[in-house]
Amino acid sequence: MAAWSAYQTTSTPFGSWKSIWSGFLAAVASCISVLFLWILTLRPSPQHGVISVLRHLYFAGKSYTRGKYYLRKLKTAWKNPRYAQDQFLMRVLKENGDTDYGRKFKLKNIVSAEEFRKRHSLTTYEDYKPYVERVMAGEQCVMTQVMPNAFVQTSGTTGPSKYFPQRDQRYLLTRMMDVLYTNLHELCPRLGLLQKKLFHYVQPVMSRAKNGGSIRSAFALYEDGFMASCYTTPPSGFRIHSYDDANYIHLVFTLLDPNTGALCGSFLGGIYTMMKQLEQCWEDIVYDIEHGTITEKVKFDDADIRSSLEQALGGGHPERAGELRRQFEKGFNGIMKRVWPNLEVLSAVDNAGSWPDLKAKYAEGIPFVNLGYGNSEAMILGVSPWFHEDNHSMVFCTNMAFFEFIRHEDSNESQPKTLLIDELEIGQEYEIVFTQESGLYRYRLGDVIRITGNHFNCPTFEFMYRMGLIMNLRYEKMNQVVLKAGLQSAVGQWNDMRLFEYAVAESTLVPKSSPAFEETEDMPYYVIFLELDQTVNKSGNKETSKTAELASNEITSSIDVELRGLNSIYERLRRSGAISHPRVHILKPGTFEDLKQHVVNTTNTTANQYKVPQRLRTVDTLNFMFDHAV
Ligand SMILES: *[C@@H]1O[C@H](CO)[C@@H](O)[C@H](O)[C@H]1NC(C)=O
Ligand SMILES: *[C@@H]1O[C@H](CO)[C@@H](O)[C@H](O)[C@H]1NC(C)=O
Ligand SMILES: *[C@@H]1O[C@H](CO)[C@@H](O)[C@H](O)[C@H]1NC(C)=O
Ligand SMILES: *[C@@H]1O[C@H](CO)[C@@H](O)[C@H](O)[C@H]1NC(C)=O
Ligand SMILES: *[C@@H]1O[C@H](CO)[C@@H](O)[C@H](O)[C@H]1NC(C)=O
């Protein structure tokens, strides 16, 4: 009404134009102020400029909108998992039907999951190797209609590397990150869209196949321009190949931002290692934040990384540096909440079970969300829509792969009967088989999971172990879950001791040339290596030698007793003398950290994808362990 009367009283065209214009300006101004008020609710960092905040809003908003859409589709798939599975399978068979592989198996004519399981046998990598080689050489239409633009390379610690083609790496990565981040925002409503996240990442060395696709590890999860300005670390910080140096840079920039909202990464162990590194190098970090420099101790392959990082530090932040110094001088217990008061969540894959330690030491008061279940072959197969504290289970991504399940007791057969997603029993263990969209069909992953319940109508599961890590001297099939439980319980009987990490080899791996070799062909045994933590009394050298002395008798017999109690076949084989008692070696503190360096130095394994080799399978790692026993 006011605007209308203003129009009435201004008679000249120029005057009316002016009042419309000022009304328009007022409207724009109020929109902008509403926009800014809304932006404030998303918890931006005060020290970031308007342009940087708007860029962040653009990328984070896009990712969140897409993530919402994918999550909605996933929920629909959970409500009717069998239908979602059939849809996925039929789509993939049609899309990849017109390829050399598809024609050979007449994939296009298949009309049901039933027929698919009859016509196509279960497979392993060997079935695809010749096809993959042709794809990598640049031949068209071999496994997929579109030319794959990436090959995920396994580390090949125990044999030659395997390569898994991916039709569209960037799309898969984007979708995975969108789903995971949106899931975090739904779980933690207080996590502001404009709070920056740490993305813990070390850039693996990549190469190119003849067809132009990149050859990369499964954890090459960062792409240029990807989620730019949503992460604490500037883009050049994602180009660092050295693990320690990358950790240092992530620490500098994440500590610089007191408003950091989430710490994410592929493996939680990586974040744990980074925090331990902080205790060593915090003085350098505080100095660098204060002066806007990067210490010369950090080496870069590329000279321009240093200058762009120093530029991002913008001349130094003495106030923040002073605040950090005060916090570090108080010690590192519960440090995360003290330096990042708005930190809402940690998210990664906890493959080494580091969460309880990390939480107790640094992450008090912050919840953890399991990033999901994935691998080189399929990126992501399960997500966890809960806080880890509430529920350790994950739910199958029923619209991203077609799953089949082999009953645990049938795993030793080469073509056992499989079950579908709606035929599983809670509490049972199954080996996973899956079909994905880049050319693997009925592929046996060798992972064993246990069904724990239902989410909507879709089964939930926990990862149990890899079949490749089962210890099998005779036919006792000692899996890593049982083995670890036995070792923990044996070590726990020992005052103040805790199992930090372990690795086990079958005695058949010990080479004749080794001093540890024993002539016991018909009485094989486990060679067990333990790194222990003294929980109360910090170990000095005297303590360590005492530990070594005790090892040979006390701990050996308690481990033997525990394992016999947990695995009845092992018990029978031990009683009949078909297996000899284990040989236990206590390792020097820090051995597993050194082993990691050693493996990263000497194989194609990158620091990102490294996993502790719980079952030692190479003479090289075995000798490394013998060399580090006390
Ligand atoms: C390591 O990677 C290179 C290049 O991708 C490859 O040629 C070589 O065979 C790999 N080594 C092993 C042991 O897999
Ligand atoms: C698999 O193991 C079961 C016992 O667990 C045995 O009865 C069966 O013969 C084995 N099958 C093969 C192919 O080894
Ligand atoms: C985890 O959630 C699923 C689905 O809601 C449920 O069936 C299962 O019992 C839960 N597990 C625990 C340990 O709470
Ligand atoms: C720590 O070690 C000392 C001597 O080695 C011992 O007397 C003391 O009881 C130990 N502390 C605990 C809590 O076990
Ligand atoms: C790994 O290589 C780095 C240098 O590339 C070297 O400093 C380090 O000592 C090596 N570590 C092991 C355990 O071989």
Automatic annotation (TrEMBL):
One Gene Ontology CC term in the entry: cytoplasm
- InterPro entries on file: GH3, GH3_C, GH3_M
Question: What name does UniProt use for this protein?
Answer: GH3 domain-containing protein
Q: Which residues cross the membrane?
A: 20-40
A single GO molecular function, which one? acid-amino acid ligase activity
Residue limits of the GH3 C-terminal domain?
Answer: 514-614
Per UniProt, residues of the GH3 middle domain are 395-466
Keywords assigned by UniProt, alphabetized: Membrane, Transmembrane, Transmembrane helix
